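Case study 2.
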Amino acid sequence: MSKKNKFGKGRFNLRYLTKEGFRNIRVHKLMTVASITVMLSCLLLIGGAYLIYTNIQSVIERVGEQNVIMVFVEDEATLEQEAALSDMIKANPNVKECVFISREESFSNILYNMGESAQVLDDIGSDFLPNAYKVTINDMEEFGNTVNEIKNYDNVLSIRENGELARRIADIQNAVGLISIVIVIILLIVSLFIIANTVRITMFSRSLEISIMKAVGATNWFIRWPFLVEGVIIGVLSAIISFGLIFGLYAAAEKVLASMFDILGNTMVPFEECMWVLLIAFVATGVVTGAAGSFISLGRYLKEHGKVVEND
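Prediction:
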């Protein structure tokens, strides 16, 4: 049986080629370590950018929750009318929460905040205060529209809100989201470029091996498949190592930054809430980048050093 048959289309042995990919990982340890190191760095940067974005968004949402709308109810409103107003507010698609604040509760809060000076109000009851609803919204960009809608509801005496703060929060959210997306895209492109060039160096170091396979009639995919397997393995290994490192780094950051987040009235987002997103993203990015880098590099190498047989 000829060598060409061994490497040709009729004898394309997927199991054999996959084993070759694993063997190449062991044989070319130095280049494997170099590729894993490069991809590891990129994945750590991507994971760090995502975790920073998640925590910034958490702080912004916390601030947004404090920027509530106070809806004061007309004194003449009956209990049924107050209940109807509450239902209308809760039915608003941009309302996250609606809490009833009685005039007695508001008066108690005033006395508490005044401290010792509260004695000047000893002879004054809570009747001068209106009942109110404390409203928290979902989308800060729709803050103004939501306020205008609630103003038109029946039995609304007045509304207290801070539209300027709401607009600033919305602008910050949009800016953070856009910057994070741009950073991740740039890192992915850089990662793909570096991996592709690292694998390309591997091609040159194994030019004799590739030349021999071409000489005996190996098809395109016979040559490509082991390199693709290598790229996938490198991607998976990089993803697993990156996940372990990002977990340790995040745990250390939680201890160091805990006091700063306490000042902001917030806590860092628990790693458990992000772990599956990170793990899936790391594995997917590692596999796709590793395989794509190998495919692109091998394609360029073969183009520069002569085509293999075309029956792929």
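Residues 1-12, 307-312 have pLDDT under 50 and may be disordered.
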